[in-house]
Amino acid sequence: MRLSVDVNGGDRSPDQIIGGALDFISSHPECELIFCADKETAANISPSIKNPAIQIQISEHSVAMNDTPAAAKKDKPDNTIAGAVRAVKDGRADCAFSCGNSGAVILNAIEILGMKNEIPAPALMSFVPMFQRKPAAVFDVGALGNRVFEAELYYNLIPEAVNIYKILFGSEDPSVSILNIGTEHWKGTLEHKKLFKMLEGSGYNFKGNIEGDGLLSSNAEIIITDGFTGNTVLKLLESFNEICKKFAYIKDCHKENNLLNFMTGDFSYENVGAAFLLGVNGRIAIGHGKSSSEAVSSGLELCLKYCKI
């Protein structure tokens, strides 16, 4: 299995990206990695990379986190993100991974890989750890942040989401729910109601609508929402985790099966280091911009499972 890694992507690159990738490859000698680096980074790391399972691919530029994706694509066409995606396009990598500018990753994926049939736009699917059960998959969490909720678009993305969930978490028939302002079928926008009817008459394991308070307490496995809402929810949950970590200093949470212990440990984004881009003709994984080496390693672990699809 071969993974291309944008080592210049993210707030803590390249050190944390490379460190996490090295941790991953030490546990998976059967895998190969392509480090996609700009000239300066490549010159710095080349002497220290001795593992024959790692090759370095050099690009002219890297994309900064605050670069406008369209401008970066125009002004820096030969960048490390594009290099990682092209490795997938050319068949040299089974999946590309970047913790960099997510807009640039998405834009390059659309242009280089193209979209799957009947899907006009991609969605980003992330995973929320749950207490004593399988994680919940949520899409979209940002790829369609400027796009209104469209029933047919999300309906066409469900097969890929279901297939990924089955492989990653061993669920034979993952449940599907819609994040809405009420559980009643008549709640939400016209598009929410349209999607409800489409799913109700489908062969999916549809469980109806869930409200925000059910996201962490229900048994929902795949949750559909728009990119604006999904991104807001994901970041809210991450901030909640940070609050719990601070609270842990004054409250004993080191007890077996303690919920607070779960919130400060397993609930951390570092344990789910990758979100997958649905709808494009290739496997693309995006990590958190602030990813540590632990988050990078866990993200690559998910990529490895993703490649089995």
> Helix count, per DSSP?
10
Largest sheet: 11 strands, mixed
CATH top level label of the largest domain? Alpha Beta
- The low-confidence parts are none
Number of domains: 2
Helical content (DSSP H or I, runs of 4+): 25-40%
What is the assigned CATH homologous superfamily of the largest domain? Isopropylmalate Dehydrogenase
Shape: globular
Task: Tell me the structural class.
Answer: alpha/beta
For the record, the CATH architecture of the largest domain stands as 3-Layer(aba) Sandwich
Query: How much beta, percentage-wise?
Result: 15-25%
Order of helices and strands: EHEHEHHEHEEHEHEEHHEEH
Q: State the strand order across the main sheet.
A: 3-2-1-4-11-10-5-6-9-7-8
Structure write-up:
The protein has 309 residues and is of the alpha/beta class. The protein has two domains: 1-114 and 280-309, Isopropylmalate Dehydrogenase (3-Layer(aba) Sandwich), CATH 3.40.718.10; 122-272, Isopropylmalate Dehydrogenase (3-Layer(aba) Sandwich), CATH 3.40.718. The protein is built from ten helices and eleven strands. Strands 3-2-1-4-11-10-5-6-9-7-8 form an eleven-stranded mixed sheet, sandwiched between helices. Strand 10 (275-278) and strand 11 form a beta hairpin. Helix 1 crosses helix 10 (293-306). The longest helix is centred in the last third of the chain and has 21 residues, at 227-247. 46% of the residues are buried.
